[in-house]
């Protein structure tokens, strides 16, 4: 990986300062009428589409995009892009003409030939959903002037997955919910938001598991809905989840959390063997929860950044060395010791 791309990757993801949120994202799915859907394209068609999209991308902004071809990167780079939510796991899978067109300053990414011809996404920390939609809609308008989208008057934008048909907009957020999980109320809350059409997924989306009490909440099928309506509904859902998380925090046994935090810190500073990513993330989640409860004085944003920094591929990218599990565990422990040396309970 070249130095410029490495520096950009290590700055990602853009995180929220709000206690219960990590990131927010709006994503459009679009297909181009003259091409078969990606799973039916041949290599020549995929490469032609890539060329056309790259040519058009110069019209989107003054910023020069970073172009990343999935076939030109090694497995460590591919995995770190997944770990930091820069690409989806599906994007990393084998296929013709899969490229990322990335505008870091605009916080805009275009995936070419993932599940659909184009997946256009804007992302941020604690940004207004409507501002994000305005930015995404502006880019979509530019692209639509160059491409004839696959569109049906009755069904809207046509997509590979039927659940995306309609406006083909997905609004999502990574939300941190330790109090709801600890009090056992998370199933009730998730049941309510599922009934109103939202989807609950793991840390890396569909088919993945939650990591450290962080879940992806997303809008579901949107046929018949307008984009602004989706943003309004999702913002309301996020407010409701946040309210219940804060209410649940009031019932938590702070003394018990304190003891667990002390145990984790002792493990970091008394252990000489290393620590796995799984145990590290559980501990960092505990520290972040302690911060939210007012038990410890620590930089919450620094903790959130550590969540990503200590993941396996991210460690190897930062160190510029491929390592086995034992080496990663040792490096991870050293990083945690350095970053948490001023944390006191």
Could you walk me through the main structural features you see in this protein, from its secondary elements to its overall organization?
This protein has 13 helices and ten strands. It has 345 residues and is α+β, with helices and mostly antiparallel strands. The chain folds into two domains: 3-248, Glutamine synthetase/guanido kinase, catalytic domain (Creatine Kinase, Chain A, domain 2, 2-Layer Sandwich), CATH 3.30.590.10; 254-339, no CATH class. The strands form two sheets. An eight-stranded antiparallel sheet has the order 2-3-4-5-1-8-10-9, covered by helices on one side. Strands 6-7 form a two-stranded antiparallel sheet. α3 crosses α12 (312-319), α9 crosses α10 and α10 (277-293) runs antiparallel to α11.
């Amino acid at each position: 990986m070249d130095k410029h791309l490495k520096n950009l990757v290590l700055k990602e993801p853009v995180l929220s300062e709000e206690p219960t949120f990590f990131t927010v994202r709006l994503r459009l799915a679009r297909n181009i009428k003259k091409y078969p859907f990606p799973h039916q394209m041949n290599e020549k068609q995929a490469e032609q589409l890539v060329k056309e999209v790259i040519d058009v991308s110069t019209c989107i902004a003054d910023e020069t995009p970073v172009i990343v071809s999935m076939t030109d990167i090694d497995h460590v780079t591919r995995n770190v892009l997944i770990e930091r939510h820069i690409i989806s796991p599906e994007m990393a899978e084998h296929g013709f003409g899969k490229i990322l067109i990335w505008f870091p300053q605009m916080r805009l990414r275009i995936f070419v030939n993932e599940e659909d011809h184009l997946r256009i996404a804007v992302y941020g920390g604690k940004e207004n959903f409507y501002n994000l939609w305005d930015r995404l809609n502006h880019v979509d308008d530019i692209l639509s002037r160059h491409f004839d989208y696959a569109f049906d008057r009755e069904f809207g934008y046509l997509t590979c997955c039927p659940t995306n048909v309609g406006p083909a907009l997905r609004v999502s957020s990574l939300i941190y919910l330790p109090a709801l999980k600890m009090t056992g109320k998370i199933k009730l809350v998730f049941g309510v938001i599922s009934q109103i059409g939202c989807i609950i997924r793991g840390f890396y989306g569909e088919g993945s598991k939650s990591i450290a009490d962080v879940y992806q909440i997303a809008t579901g099928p949107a046929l018949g809905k307008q984009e602004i309506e989706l943003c309004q509904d999702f913002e309301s859902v996020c407010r409701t989840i946040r309210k219940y998380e804060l209410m649940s925090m009031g019932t938590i046994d702070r003394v018990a959390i304190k003891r667990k935090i002390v145990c984790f810190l002792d493990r970091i500073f008394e252990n000489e063997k290393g620590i796995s990513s799984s145990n590290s993330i559980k501990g960092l989640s505990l520290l972040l929860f302690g911060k939210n409860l007012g038990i410890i004085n620590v930089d919450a944003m620094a903790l959130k950044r550590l969540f990503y920094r200590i993941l396996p591929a991210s460690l190897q990218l930062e160190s510029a060395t491929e390592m086995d599990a034992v080496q990663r565990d040792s490096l991870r422990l050293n990083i945690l010791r350095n970053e948490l040396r001023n944390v006191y309970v």
